[in-house]
Specification:
By secondary structure, this protein is α/β, with parallel strands linked by helices. It has a single domain, classed as Rossmann fold (3-Layer(aba) Sandwich). The chain contains 3 helices and 5 strands, in the order βαβαβαββ.
């Protein structure tokens, strides 16, 4: 499965999925990986959720999915998890979190 032709983000873009170890978050991450996107998933405890990286590495190849540990979802902690990602906003405005 590939990204739709009219997708705003081209395949290969890295997308942040919060709560990637949860039921909905893991399915969203899986669907994005199927469409050729890279995924950074936030979890509260990276050591406990290492199985998620193993699962996605086995299914999609190494380096397509990564975990970002965010113990508490605060503005500063989320900004750290977003480091190096482009953020697309309405009206074609793009912000970049340096990395």
């Amino acid at each position: 499965m590939s990204a739709p032709k009219d997708a705003v983000l081209p395949p290969g873009s890295k997308i942040l999925v919060t709560g990637a170890n949860g039921y909905i978050g893991s399915h969203v991450a899986d669907q994005l990986l199927q469409r050729g996107y890279l995924v950074r998933g936030t979890v509260r405890d990276a050591a406990k959720q290492a199985w998620l990286t193993e699962l996605f590495d086995k299914e999609y190849g190494s380096g397509k999915f990564e975990i970002a540990e965010v113990k508490e979802l605060t503005k500063d902690n989320l900004a750290a998890a977003m480091k190096g990602l482009s953020v697309y906003l309405p009206r074609d405005t793009t912000l970049f979190f340096g990395g």
